[in-house]
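Annex B. Sample input.
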Amino acid sequence: MIEVLSFEFMQHALLAGIFVSFAAGIIGSLIVVNRMVFLAGGIAHTSYGGIGLAVYFGLPIFLGASLFAVAAALLIAFLTLKKRHRIDTFIGLIWAVGMAIGVLFVDLTPGYNVDLMSYLFGSILAVSSEDLYFMAILLIAIIIMVTFWYRDILAVSYDSEYANLRGVNVTFFYTLILVLSALTVVIAIKVVGLILVIAMLTIPVYIAEKLTHSLFSMMFVSGSIATFFTLVGLWLSYSYDLTSGASIIMVSALCLGLFLLINKRV
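Annex B, continued. Sample output.
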């Protein structure tokens, strides 16, 4: 495996795995404590509409998916800010419409014959330098924002009414969480695909939640766990010629099962 690191595509894959894993650990923790797990799947599938538009108009795939996902997140924030108990209904609607838009625009694109499996199950070995820049910048932005506004984000996540009484701008931070979630989902699609992205954002967080006692430590631990899962899955996918995204998620699922078994016996 060591000699493989001399290849540029493997170096890119390792860096992408680390960047995305820590971003997923931080944002996944926020998604879980805000009880918006369905959001990850909704935005992932909605972003397929951006992929279809990017293909049709000849734009970079990452750009199209990111803009569409952010637009979907802003729409969800607008629709659910006062009705957070109805968030699943709106996400389900946007999920279906986004997927439909993506499929229709891919159908309308003349001569387009690219394997769409890479978007469904990830293509971490095909990460480019531009993708890495985007992932690194997003991770840095997430760390800065969460660190700077940690107390406000914590208050909004656990008790938005109390946060509002304290003078916290609930609308801004609720929208910020959704937008950062959307962008994290987009980069996670590159690693595990839109079908498996929910698992990447929730399995490490579930384990970290049982091992920690604060949101901040849960973010760091879940990011570290996600990195371990990604690197092991990447090694298995390369060694046995398997799909990288599916390998990463299977490693995550097996480790979760082992954790639950050990935790039950302790």
